[in-house]
Amino acid sequence: MRYAVERVRTGIPELDNALEGGIPKGSWVAVTGEPGTGKSILCIHYAYRGLIEGEPVIYVTTEAEFRDVVRQAKQFGLHLDDYEIFYLGSAPPAVKPQLVVIDIFSLLKKAKQISAAGGGRWHAALDIETLTAAIQDAYEVLGLTTGGRMSPRRHVRLIIDSLSAFWADKPAMARKYSYQLKIATHRENVTAVLVSQYAPTTGATFGYGLEHIADGVIHLWMDNVEEVKGVRRYLIIKKMRMTNHSLTAYRVRIEPGKGLSLEPLSGAE
Ligand SMILES: Nc1ncnc2c1ncn2[C@@H]1O[C@H](COP(=O)(O)OP(=O)(O)O)[C@@H](O)[C@H]1O
Ligand SMILES: [Mg+2]
């Protein structure tokens, strides 16, 4: 048992089955794909599963207001607001939160704070340094650090939707920034799901880099909508360290009241 790999369930049962029970604990998993393929919904399932299991969740949202994330989740019967939510940068919470949101406002506030403290070096909300500082604050708010060190016991789920936002204007920096972020915030008890956006039509990523430092890559895509005249979504586990995993693609379904589920491709086995 000493070398047994602990698993973190994603909240999507078929995906967990495809991963021998879940993502190996402590992994950094990139979720890649073009718009509308289901990346954000996958993040919502992952967050909600954590809350159900009583684990602290850190949710970085750059693409949508968290209020809209909560609304979207409700359509799938995932009630994020049943849990104690704290927006980083707002007045200190009365009770210990279960979910810490880092949104654009949190990042703006943090950027101002570190710019003021940093001897004149200016930081933007979407700087990787700002993000790193905000995540470290979230670890503290959740009571996971003592004397700056992480408690080894509690497992934390970190979601960043999306990480591409932090290098949107400088895609060549993607690899360096991903590395910098991983060094600063990776802990063995933090399992991260990080969204990387791919451009529609070309399928090219906005800065290839995250995939290189990731322990896992879950890729989502859709058929050419003009050709097939419809939206057909797929998911494949391209890479996952420390585990055996399914090597074939799945059809992705997104349904009201249920959310994202996977079906094996017929005849693909
Ligand atoms: N309530 C719903 N019922 C069914 N499908 C939905 C519902 N809400 C959103 N969707 C589908 O999910 C898609 C968005 O998925 P999302 O995870 O936000 O994509 P992205 O990869 O861009 O993050 C929408 O384009 C729509 O097809
Ligand atoms: Mg999205």
List the topology elements.
Layout: E1 7-8, H1 13-18, E2 23-24, E3 28-33, H2 39-52, E4 57-61, H3 66-74, E5 85-87, E6 99-102, H4 104-117, H5 128-141, E7 145-146, E8 149-150, E9 156-161, H6 174-185, E10 190-197, H7 210-213, E11 216-222, H8 225-228, E12 233-240, E13 250-255, E14 259-264
Helix pairs in contact: 4-5, 5-6
The protein binds adenosine-5'-diphosphate and magnesium ion (MG).
Magnesium ion is lined by residues 39-40, 63, 161.
Protein model, in words:
- There is one protein chain.
- The protein has eight helices and 14 strands.
- With 269 residues, the chain is α/β, with parallel strands linked by helices.
- The protein has a single domain (7-264), classed as 3-Layer(aba) Sandwich (Rossmann fold).
- The strands form three sheets. It has a ten-stranded mixed beta sheet, with helices on both faces. The chain has a two-stranded antiparallel sheet with strand order 1-2. It has a two-stranded antiparallel sheet with strand order 7-8.
- Helix 4 packs across helix 5 and helix 5 runs parallel beside helix 6.
- The protein is globular, with a radius of gyration of 18 Å.
- The mean pLDDT is 93.
- It binds adenosine-5'-diphosphate (ADP) and magnesium ion (MG).
What is the compact description of this entry?
It contains 8 helices and 14 strands.
Provide the helix percentage: 25-40%
Query: What is the CATH superfamily label?
Result: P-loop containing nucleotide triphosphate hydrolases
CATH topology: Rossmann fold
What is the number of helical segments per DSSP (H or I, 4+ residues)?
A: 8
What is the CATH architecture descriptor?
3-Layer(aba) Sandwich
Q: What multimeric state do the chains show?
A: single chain
**Order of strands in the sheet with most strands:** 5-6-4-9-10-3-11-12-13-14
Total E-strand runs: 14
Low-confidence runs of at least 5 consecutive residues: none
What's the CATH class label? Alpha Beta
Mean pLDDT: 93
Q: In this structure, how is the largest beta sheet organized?
A: 10 strands, mixed
Bound compounds: adenosine-5'-diphosphate, magnesium ion
Strand content: 15-25%
| Gyration radius, rounded | 18 Å
Q: How many separate domains make up the residues? A: 1
Q: State the separation between the terminal residues, measured CA to CA.
A: 31 Å
- Inertia-based shape: globular
Structural class: alpha/beta
Order of helices and strands: EHEEHEHEEHHEEEHEHEHEEE
